[in-house]
Known about the structure:
- The chain folds into 2 domains: 2-193, Alpha-Beta Complex (2-enoyl-CoA Hydratase, Chain A, domain 1); 195-244, Lyase 2-enoyl-coa Hydratase, Chain  A, domain 2, CATH 1.10.12.10.
- Helix content is 48%, strand content 16%.
- The protein is built from 10 helices and 10 strands.
- The radius of gyration is 19 Å and the shape is globular.
Amino acid sequence: ERRQAGGVRTIVLNNPRRRNALSLPMLQSLRRDLLHDVKSRELRVIVIAAEGPVFCSGHDLKELSSEDDVNQHSQVFELCAEVMTLIQKLPVPVIAKVNGLATAAGCQLVASCDIAVASEKSQFATPGVNIGLFCSTPAVALGRSLPRKVALEMLFTGEPLSAQEALMHGLVSKVVPEDKLEEETMKISQKICESSKSVLALGKATFYRQITQDLDTAYKMTTKVMVDNLTLRDGQEGLEAFIQKRKPVWSH
């Protein structure tokens, strides 16, 4: 399901009977809802949430059960990788709102989002090793979000992290009581909506570019981006508003 109000688009994984598995139809729907009118000035932040006790159980194993259908298997994993990388390429921040269990590619989805807010009852695991399918693609996002030894323990054992452990190791941004999850997620979303979309888009793209570079290259690139930021209409508007002690009026 997709709904939007006040600059915030909420995408809800809504197949709780199948534990919100990332089947081909679910992945196709998620990609479509992420990309829908993404350049609109009205869209400022995306929240990914879920119905039911499981945020997302990962791939639909029924789609992977036939060893002969290599083409379908490739399609599933390639589309999943496309959606995960798309999240970081979008010009708006993406927040995972997690209330329940996130496993395998579901854990990958959380790790791929820019921000993740979880309820205290949430858990995170990569249990593929237990059924003979090592979570190699989830490991890409996991290994970039967690310390290596924590990620590898999850991948080697399949044992879950609690919400507090996920917070301690950096997989999620905040942990709140279940009854505060919506309030906290909207608080972050609304704060993001107060800023310029064009400035945030530049900042997000730059962050993901520099994080993979060595220190000197990263500083060289971001120095140029700071200068570019000053040429944006909203870059100038923000500085003028600060000097004039008034609230900025963004053009986005």
